[in-house]
Amino acid sequence: MSEYNPAAIEPKWQKYWIENKIFKTDDTDRSRPKYYVLDMFPYPSSSGLHVGHPEGYTATDIIARYKRKKGFNVLHPMGWDAFGLPAEQYAIKTGTHPKITTKENIKRFREQLQSLGFSYDWDREVDTTDPAYYKWTQWIFLQLYKQGLAYQSSVAVNWCPELGTVLANEEVIDGKSEVGGFPVIRKPMRQWMLRITAYAERLLDDLEEVDWPDSIKEMQRNWIGRSVGADIDFRVSGHDGTGNQGLARKKPDHEDVIRVFTTRPDTLFGATYMVLSPEHPLVDVITTPEQVDVVKAYRAGAANKSELDRTDLNKDKTGVFTGGYAVNPCTGKDIPVWVADYVLMTYGTGAIMSVPGHDERDWEFAVKYGLPVVEVVKGGDVSKAAYTDTDDGIVVNSANDEVSINDLPVAEAKVKITNWLEKKGLGEKTVNYKLRDWLFSRQRYWGEPFPVIFVNGEPKPMRDEDLPVTLPEVERYKPSGTGESPLATIEEWVNTTDPETGAPARRETNTMPQWAGSCWYYLRYIDPDYTEGPVSPEKERYWMPVDLYVGGAEHAVLHLLYARFWHKVLYDVGVVSTKEPFQRLVNQGMILGELEFTAWKDADGNYVPANALEPGVEYQPEKLSEEQIGKKGTDFVITGTGIVIDARSFKMSKSRGNVINPDIVVEKYGADSLRLYEMFMGPLEQVKPWSMKGVEGVYRFLKRVWRTFVDEETGKLRSEIADAEPDRDQLKIMHETIKKVTDDIEGHRFNTAISQLMIFNNEAMKWAVKPRGLMKTYIRLLDPFAPHIAEELWEMLGETEVLAYTEWPAYEEKYLQSDSMVIAVQVNGKLRASIEIPSDKVMDKEFVLAQARGNGQVRKYLDGVTVVKEIFVPGRIVNIVVRG
RNA sequence: GCCGACGUGGUGGAAUGGUAGACACGACAGACUUAAAAUCUGUUGGGCCUUAUAGCCCGUGCCGGUUCGAGUCCGGCCGUCGGUACCA
User: A358: Cβ under 7 Å from strand B?
Assistant: First the structure.
């Protein structure tokens, strides 16, 4: 071999690593520190790996290879999140069992990942669809059940007739299904729910303990949505209010009392009407006979609204008067009770007190329906808009015989009025969360069956020894049409007996959502063959928590919140020893398609500048090539015309045709080039556009590295590589490179680490004598990034031990020094000269300043002026401040 | 609307408050070649001036501030992207 030929060396080393189990984790060694570096495992889709996958996977692989060299016992596994809708939809279309499709897809994914040279311990592969795996998913569900955290509920869920299934909120986008874009309506069904709300406070508090990006923590906080306020009871007018004393506190749906939640108890005196959600049980009690028809019609309308309609109607609030009144506990006045669907039954108590003076929604509604607006916080003009400032506002018009909160700032007023309410038994301080319980069942075939049977219609959890409950073989995968899963149609599976008593029983036909398997897979990697539980306690204690978790930001909220929830439950039942599963989290940025240039044409075929497009008008896009465009100011234009065009990158998608297949890249440039390019593109966390030219750039770099070591004429190691003593300059750049690459890997700045590897090679290419020791050090630095070429060159250097476990080089400070340093000289902050100072003098302020003043360029600026001040930054810069 | 991230050459991007543009792509010029590819060498933010590869001015979305010194810190705008949305 003479030229750099990745197609030859990459398969060779991949085979070697796998056959010799080079990256198998030693699970008997407890003497070394551990490092658990985890990727978000992929859903093995039929379309194969996407260039987005290897981005995070390369980053973690670099870390894993680096940590091994640093002496850590590294756990770096991979597996498959293989339940999911696409396999089931394919089965419906073709009749192919999802198991078969899944198996094929996994095989393809595994081959693709192995062709990229990732250093996974393949003996720890997990597959969420494997009964040996989902046995423990079911077991964990039973723990939740036993903790009272799983319950059934009939809830109005997102029913999608086209998909024949119920969707979670997160699968509905703008009132349409995320998959396929079909309409979604609301339909009540029996569902399993998980009481994640019981863990809301801990999920919020423990974010303090993890090393995650602030933005992700903030997103989780917003999702949990903690708000502090008060529950307040309003007596229904015309009722005697017996329920208003003490008893009502425990019975919020007492028929005499409307309980509301508010974050603004300070505005209670300004509550001029109330609103119940259409689903609120008290609507029937309160509605007067005259209003029954109109209320009934309104509720029916609200119930039939799809999510899309609800979104559309956001701008225009609607509601009807019930005819009933309630009593404002502060003013003692009767206020009307309305029904409106801008109040949600699923948040707070499903009822609100309306303070139109100080809440925008209430203001809008009050103006529309002619309800009174009262000012109780001074600072705005409530006849024009609601005044919602809580920092500067001062409470007014808020006193009765017993209490006054007038003249207090909002925060103090809240405390005082809440205390008064508590004393009177009319209300209390409360905390509410936006977070809802987790809808945990799907009407699908391809998911984990619930380990639950129904005996005489009552749910009964199965015993541990009866797990797993496996999926039956079926003939057809079509939804039953009733909304139940296809499992409901398989009589011989559904009808069973209670293994404990032999009594006839029916199986649960719902299956678990895809999130289930991914909630705990990181534990199974630790001990994939353990049969006594999800993971053995000893190994769990050694390996947990995950030290570094890398994946896409699209999982910032849901997957990470669900997994944290399960982990805390497992912590409570003693299965795991850490409160949080993922100590450090990094989100890789999305990789976009190549930059595209688009010009726009109107109906007549004339170009319209991109900055003059009018909304609502249809334009024809025209894709332009790079030769057709120029730059004018900050805009891109069609060459010679001044017509502004759009220049941007788009998310890769099949429909746009800008998807890059990693196989093609590997075939043409090799896995090392793909890995290197994905890291060289820019910071890991950032969104970045793909560029094939960029791939060629790193490919050329690897070719140059090859030629630094290999004589292409002979195919042998270059004769310049010799057992010679390195000179001072060589040592300097070597140690600079060690320092930079080490620091940058630790800081996940892979792009600048690679840039330093390039700088070293550019230098080393010029050396007439290349000291063998330095060249070997360089290979060890290159190895985490481009392991195949590194391994090959390592072998050519005569080494027999595999590179993976060689020691990471250390730099020495003394080699970083040079004889002299260049110091910048500024006058009044402007650079005027650069002077060279011997290294042993750079700390000598007087010497350096004297040199600076004496410099010919500098002197010009010192003539005839007064030196006011001299700034001296050792080794960096001097700044002479002058006046005159 | 709210929350978050980000605005630096033709492009991707570098830059502990201390010489803006490292490294790479592209482009241009040259070498090698019958030619092309590959490879190598040089130039490459804009402008002024010059024999000069000496020097000068401008320049990190816009406006202002702090500082001897700001891409970096602070305040206010504008724009792009992501998340979220009647959450009381």
Answer: no
Closest nucleotide to A756 by C1' from CA:
B23
- Judge whether residue A851 contacts strand B, using its CB and a 7 Å cut-off: no
Q: CA A678 → C1' B27, Å?
A: 24
Instruction: Give A691-708 pLDDT, tens digit per residue.
Output: 999 999 999 999 999 999
d(CA A728, CA A747): 28
Q: Closest nucleotide to residue A692 (Cα to C1')? A: B25
Average pLDDT value for residue range A144-164:
85
Q: Is the CB of A344 under 7 A from strand B?
A: yes
Give the 3-state secondary structure of A658-672.
Answer: CCCCHHHHHHHHCHH
Asked if A421 and A403 count as a contact pair (C-beta separation under 8 A), the reply is no
Select from A5, A45, A52, A17 the least CA-distant residue to A652.
Answer: A52
Task: Let me know how long chain A is.
Answer: 884
What's the CA A44/C1' B86 distance, rounded, in angstroms? 39
Residue A139: the pLDDT is 98
Cis peptide before A545 (omega within 30 of 0): yes
- Mean pLDDT is lowest, of A6-15, A360-369, A752-761, for A360-369
- Separation of CA A704 and C1' B39 in angstroms? 10
Whether A631 sits with its Cβ under 7 A from any strand B atom: the answer reads: yes
**CA A634, C1' B77: Å apart?**
19
- Collapse the DSSP code of A80 into the 3-class scheme (helix H, G, I; strand E, B; otherwise coil) and give the result: strand
Question: Is A270:A375 a contact under the CB 8 Å cutoff?
Answer: yes
- One-character DSSP codes across A759-784: HHHHHHTT-SSEEHHHHHHHHHHHTT
Q: Which of A808, A803, A681, A802 is nearest to A737 (CA)?
A: A808
Distances (CA, A) of A757 to A126, A269, A736, A740: 36, 70, 10, 9
ipTM of the complex: 0.95
Residue A138 · residue A145 · CB < 8 Å: no
Q: In sequence order, which ranges of A70-151 are alpha helices (DSSP H)?
A: 85-94, 98-114, 131-146
* CB contact burial A126-139 (16+ within 10 A = b; e otherwise): bbbbbeebbbbbbb
**Residue A755 CB closer than 7 angstroms to strand B?**
yes
A881 CA to B73 C1', in Å? 22
- Phi, psi torsion values for A740, nearest 5 degrees: -65, -45
Return all residues near A406 (Cβ < 8 A) that are at least 6 apart. A395, A396, A397, A398, A399
Three-state DSSP string of A280-310 = CCCHHHHCCHHHHHHHHHHHHHHHHCCHHHH
Q: Which nucleotide is nearest to A828 (CA to C1')?
A: B68
Q: pLDDT averaged over chain A?
A: 89
A701 Cβ nearer than 7 Å to chain B strand: yes
A816's enclosing H/E stretch is helix A813-816
DSSP H/E element including A311: helix A307-312
Beta bridge partners of A151: A193
- Quote the CA–CA distance of A104 and A111 in Å, as a whole number: 11
Between CA A310 and C1' B4 the distance (Å) reads: 26
Domains and CATH numbers, chain A: 140-220+438-507 (3.40.50.620), 226-433 (3.90.740.10), 596-648 (no CATH), 819-883 (3.10.20.590)
Stretch (H or E) spanning A570? helix A558-572
